[in-house]
Design a protein that fits this description.
Elements (H helix, E strand, L loop, with lengths): L2 H7 L7 H18 L5 H7 L4 H29 L3 H14 L9 H28 L6 H29 L4 H7 L1 H14 L13 H4 L14 H13 L4 H6 L11 H27 L1 H21 L3 H29 L5 H30 L1 H22 L18 H4 L3
Helix pairs in contact: 2-7, 2-9, 4-6, 4-16, 5-6, 5-9, 6-16, 7-13, 7-15, 11-16, 11-17, 13-14, 13-15, 14-15, 14-17, 15-16, 16-17
Length: 423
């Protein structure tokens, strides 16, 4: 098949309706969430919390979700149904998220964010399994790219809505939090009526290499999932909450207006949207590992710039670089997990992926916030840069080394312990 034909086959216009429906749900959910998150630094500070408290807000929330992502993924495989977990997860988050408006002390925010993330834990792995089963492996990167691009687009719209409420309607922060209930409820309606679940026992996917005119490997074996999860664990430990990047810009010290937080968040997610939309389809053609090596290297460079320079233009450039690499890596990481896991066990595979991500979230945010409080931002970002660089080295060392996505992805010949090796 000619390369141009592969590009057309894997393009967004060729993706099934379920991919777009899941993208719409992610758009609405992130619009609701990101009306709140960019305002948390000033909100938590107003409640008496510092950098460590801010790190715990996001770290605890993601750590709670990580355990449920593993459990819900396994259960969805066991019962052969992922859709109920997805519906329940989105509904719980939509109900809990606006209650942050009632917080009186920092630990109230921690608890309510944890409830919100419980919903995320219920839905994430089953949702990704539905998405992966909805397309063959030749279009998997494009499918995850579209879903993650719409997710980030929603994350861009959310801060914009917050700005409109804060400036146009002179609303206070707590009113913005209450208003986030509207897009959250809309997301639940979409997932109930428009997301259709493919059978988990459908035919094996066609390998992306074959779709591109390349023959699958004769032994049809994929690298076990742990060969990706090892380097991913290193980058997850470096992936501190992006709220720290806003703090590094010196927003509070420079007296940046309240609306500056959501506007900076808006810019980051616009860049993430553009990067995710392009990187997913690109990984279908040139391979997952090449895209991730570039993206994770960008993370290390961005952290290094934030550690070494106090000049505002360089810090803004580093923030932009961080946003581009994060958007590029997001969908490609998930597509590579799906390449390594048998179709009937995608929920479990994504469960392990999200578990590694979330289990290290608390450690990442806690160590970063503690180092910042004790010795300063430069040392914290410098340490994060070293961790990200280590992840790049590990990805090269543990990766398959193939130009195409790993051979044997989604084929019957892939051993079942490709998933269990992550244990």
């Amino acid at each position: 098949m000619a390369p141009s034909a592969v590009m057309r086959a894997s393009g967004p216009s060729r993706l099934p309706a379920t991919v777009w429906a899941l993208g719409a749900v992610s758009f609405l959910t992130d619009a609701a969430s990101e009306m709140i998150v960019p305002l948390l630094p000033v909100f938590v500070a107003g409640l008496g919390g510092g950098a460590l408290a801010l790190g715990l807000v996001e770290g605890v929330a993601n750590a709670v979700a990580s355990v449920l992502k593993l459990v819900s993924g396994r259960l969805s495989d066991r019962f052969g149904r992922a859709h109920p977990f997805v519906v329940a997860g989105y509904a719980l988050s939509a109900a809990a998220r606006p209650l942050v408006a009632l917080a009186a002390v920092p630990w109230h925010v921690v608890a309510l964010r944890a409830v919100d993330r419980i919903g995320k834990g219920l839905r994430s792995s089953p949702r990704d399994a539905i998405l992966a089963r909805s397309v063959d492996s030749a279009r998997r990167g494009a499918a995850f790219g579209v879903q993650r691009a719409l997710d980030h687009a929603g994350a861009a719209v959310g801060p914009l809505l917050a700005v409109v409420l804060l400036v146009g309607f002179a609303a206070d922060v707590r009113t913005v939090f209450w208003a986030a209930a509207v897009p959250g409820a809309m997301a639940v309606i979409v997932v109930l009526w428009f997301v259709r679940e493919p059978s988990p026992d459908g035919p094996g996917d066609t390998h992306a290499g074959a779709a591109a005119g390349r023959s699958p490997s004769p032994d049809a074996s994929a690298p076990p999932l742990w060969r990706f999860l090892v380097p991913y664990a290193a980058v997850a430990l470096a992936s501190v909450t992006e709220l720290f990047l806003l703090m590094r810009l010196g927003a509070t010290e420079a007296g940046l207006p309240l609306v500056g937080y959501p506007l900076a968040w808006l810019g980051m997610h616009v860049l993430k949207t553009l990067a995710a939309a392009r990187a997913g389809g690109w990984s279908d053609r040139v391979g997952r590992r090449l895209v991730l090596v570039w993206a994770w290297t960008g993370m290390a460079v961005a952290y290094g710039l934030l550690a070494a320079f106090d000049a505002r233009p360089i810090q803004w450039a580093a923030l932009a670089l961080f946003a581009v690499q994060a958007g590029a890596a997001d969908g490609v990481q998930r597509a590579w997990v799906a390449d390594l896991v048998p179709r009937a066990r995608l929920g479990t595979g994504f469960g392990w992926f999200h578990f590694v991500e979330g289990a290290l979230a608390l450690a990442a945010s806690a160590w970063f916030g503690a180092v910042w409080d004790m010795v300063g931002a430069a040392v914290a970002f410098g340490t994060a840069a070293l961790l990200a660089a280590t992840a790049v080295v590990a990805l090269v060392a543990f990766g398959s080394g193939r130009r195409s996505p790993p051979d044997g992805a989604g084929q019957p010949g892939v051993p079942e312990d490709a998933v269990d090796a992550g244990q």
